Amino acid sequence: MISPVCVVSLVRVTALNGPRSTFIPDGSIDFVNRTELPIAGGDADLLGTDTSERGDAARNRRLLLDAAALLVAERSVDCISMEAVAARAGVGKGTVFRRFGSRAGLMHALLDHSEKELQSAFMFGPPPLGPGAEPIDRLVAFGRARLDLIELQGEILRAAEAGIDMRYTAAPRLVSVSHIVMMLRQNGTPGDLRLLADALLAALDASLVLHQIHDQHMPIDRIADNWEVLARRVAGGVT
Questions:
Q1: Which tens digits make up the pLDDT trace of 29-73?
Q2: Where DNA binds (residue ranges) (predicted)?
Q3: 3-class SS at 201?
Q4: Which domains does the chain have, with CATH numbers?
Q5: Against a cut of 0.90, is the pTM above it?
Q6: Contact yes or no for 26/37 (Cβ under 8 A)
Q7: DSSP 3-state of 38
Q8: Mean local confidence (pLDDT), 155-183
């Protein structure tokens, strides 16, 4: 079961006034391969939502996300199905699948607002997470912020990561990879930066972190401190 704090956050996540709005302004981040995530002029929706969505479609989306959030509050994440969300929202199952594509897509939608906040923080927020700090310090801060998100919404993150087809190609992950690559490049780290970024993100996998917390009884501070050691060694800050 997720914590009451997580439930409160999920309700906040779904209290949106329109379509998903996670975006990366053009030129604000050094993408590893822009063909992976094309940027359209100003704002680009990372999770593939049509930003021109209006009227009934937007209302239906909010209705479905509200229903999903209520079900998460009542049950464990693993018990949430597309059928249950459709029944709670009073729509057909096909409507949920057309809107989100899969259960993992639904989980990604629930996380969208939190992802937007994290992205905004590491691109525009104060240092050390945002611009103005040394690249290694920003990299360390990114991992710690990601772990904070996992501690708060880990079960939803785990469910979202379970979608094999989108786990490694979901736009928020590509943004994280690109951010890490940029920090490594600015630091002058040698090697294949894309592969190094993938390796660093593997340590922030929600399923792994939840296993460490719940099964291995590791405090989150220990995991975060280990992330810092790993990040500094990979980036070249520790020999």
A1: 443 433 333 322 222 333 334 444 566 777 888 888 888 878 876
A2: 81-100
A3: helix
A4: 4-235 (1.10.357.10)
A5: no
A6: no
A7: coil
A8: 80
